[in-house]
Design brief:
Length: 74
């Protein structure tokens, strides 16, 4: 299992990304925190795939550039 973190512009982006990820790999854990002043989210995700695979999913998604740009191994 690998732990990753990323940011997203809104909850809808997080849910869209996690929906696609969950169809392809096992999600062991996910923690989300919303910014208190903005709709932005910070997410920690534990999954059974590589950073490359996650970035590929984010790159193919509609308007998931913030997730793609901020996705990193923790």
């Amino acid at each position: 299992m690998n732990c990753y973190s990323f940011r997203a512009e809104c909850l809808q982006d997080v849910l869209m990304f996690l929906g696609v990820v969950g169809e392809q790999v096992q999600i062991a854990n996910c923690c989300m925190r919303q910014d208190p002043m903005f709709p932005d989210f910070e997410v920690e995700l534990v999954v059974t795939c590589s950073l490359r695979e996650l970035r590929s999913i984010a790159r193919k998604g509609t308007d998931l550039h913030v997730i793609y740009d901020s996705l990193k191994l923790k």
